C-alpha cells in the first residue's frame, strides 16, 4: 500500500473503495493500484471557512489498524493487509537490530585493537 499525501494525486486513478460514513472522522479513498488517501474535511464557523487535512502514513496505518471495517475491506480488495504489514515491520526491526549489533561489535573490536596496540607496546 502506498499512502497518497496530496489529494491531487487521485486525478486519473480508478477508485476501488471509499468510506465516507455520515459521522466518520475521516474520508478514506483507495485506488485499484493499491494507493490510499485518508483525509478530514473540516468546516469552520463560516461556510467558506474549510480545511482539508490529508493524513500522513503513520496516521493512516493507525486508523486502518483501529477501524475493523476499513481494515477488512482493504484486505479483501488486496490493497492492504495489516497482518502482512506487521510481519514486515517486525522483520525490518529485527534486521535493524542485527545491523546495530554488528556495528557495535565492529566498533568494540576496533577499539580493542587500538588499546592492545597502545598498551602492549609499552
Summed up, what is this model?
48% of the residues lie in helices and 21% in strands.
For this entry, give a set of tags.
alpha+beta; 2 domains; 5-stranded mixed β-sheet; elongated
Structure explained in plain terms:
Strands 1, 2, 3, 4 and 5 form a five-stranded mixed β-sheet that branches. The longest helix is centred in the last third of the chain and has 39 residues, at 82-120. The protein contains three helices and five strands; from the N terminus they run βββββααα. The model has no long low-confidence stretch (mean pLDDT 90). The protein is 48% helix and 21% strand. Strand 4 and strand 5 form a beta hairpin. It has two domains: 2-80, no CATH class; 81-122. By secondary structure, the chain is of the alpha+beta class. The radius of gyration is 24 Å and the shape is elongated. The N and C termini lie far apart (61 Å). It has helices at residues 57-66, 68-76, 82-120, and strands spanning 2-3, 15-19, 27-31, 35-43, 50-54.
Question: What's the gyration radius in Å?
Answer: 24 Å
User: If helices are DSSP runs of H or I spanning 4 or more residues, what is the number of helices?
Assistant: 3
Mean pLDDT: 90
**Approximate helicity band:** 40-55%
Oligomer: single chain
How far is the N terminus from the C terminus?
61 Å
- Helix-strand pattern: EEEEEHHH
> Based on DSSP secondary structure assignment, what is the total number of beta strands?
5
Largest sheet: 5 strands, mixed
Write the layout of secondary structure elements.
Layout: E1 2-3, E2 15-19, E3 27-31, E4 35-43, E5 50-54, H1 57-66, H2 68-76, H3 82-120
Amino acid at each position: 500500500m502506498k499512502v497518497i499525501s496530496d489529494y491531487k494525486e487521485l486525478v486519473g486513478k480508478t477508485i476501488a473503495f471509499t468510506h465516507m460514513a455520515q459521522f466518520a472522522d475521516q474520508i478514506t479513498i483507495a485506488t485499484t493500484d493499491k494507493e490510499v488517501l485518508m483525509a478530514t474535511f473540516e468546516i469552520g464557523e463560516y461556510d467558506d471557512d474549510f480545511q482539508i487535512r490529508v493524513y500522513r502514513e503513520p496516521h493512516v496505518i493507525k486508523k486502518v489498524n483501529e477501524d475493523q471495517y476499513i481494515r477488512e475491506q482493504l484486505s479483501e480488495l488486496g490493497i492492504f493487509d495489516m497482518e502482512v504489514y506487521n510481519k514486515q515491520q517486525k522483520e525490518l526491526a529485527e534486521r535493524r537490530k542485527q545491523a546495530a549489533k554488528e556495528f557495535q561489535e565492529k566498533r568494540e573490536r576496533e577499539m580493542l585493537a587500538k588499546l592492545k596496540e597502545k598498551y602492549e607496546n609499552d
